[in-house]
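Quick question about two entries, pasted in order.
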Amino acid sequence: MDQNMMFLVLIVVVMVGMMWWQSRKAKQQQGKTQDFRSNLKPGDQVATFSGLIGTVESVDLDIDQIVINSEGTLSRWRIQAVTEPPVVPNYVSDEEFAKQQEEEKDQEEQTAEPNDVTETVNAETVETAGNDADQTPREEEQSEGENPENSSENSENKESSAK
């Protein structure tokens, strides 16, 4: 019974800790949003939750309204509907990307040139050493002209020719 009670208490403590952590994060997020909205000034880029993107023309915090200019069209919104504009990534064309990749490759080759000589020497040494070590004893026997599968027949032929 004592172990079951400790397990139950542990589960309750973990659940209370998770709820406290989540509420703390939610309050931090609300604080960030409130700071963003209270610091809005004309010229700031904003977006609405419905998707309108534009710049702030005027802000009236007394009545919680904001006027947004979107491509020459002015519209009035409640300040609660305003959020930070989405981050638009910079577009890089395929040609520009390929050029960047080539430049990076050239830079890597320039920094790697002094090491190429030692790598070539090491590769040749490995290849030379590897060629000698690649042959197994069985292959050496075959290269001498003796077939290992027929070695019993060869020994029988030698014995019969000796008689």
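Here is the second entry:
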Amino acid sequence: MAQPPRATPTYLSGNEERPVNGKTTKRYIKPAREGLVVRQPQNGRPLPAEGALVDWSGYWVRRKAEGSIVETKAPAKTKAKPQGDAKQKEAE
């Protein structure tokens, strides 16, 4: 007889976001203070000072609770003008 799949434990408190449809949530975070080194759990590299989009996990929940990181909005992407258009206008 086949066993039903086991539920995976959740380590998040009731007010934290949980994965939706099995997908992880992503958030943009950065270190709380300039010069503070916060390591990323996947690769051990420091979180960039300008911030990064990360998979929200229990690790980041703990870093936020201790005050090491803050959630911010991702920087606005600027649209670069294609180089080909400028050269065509100069030729005209």
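Reply: The CA atoms of residues 20 and 86 lie 44 Å apart. The longest strand covers residues 26-31. Hope that helps.
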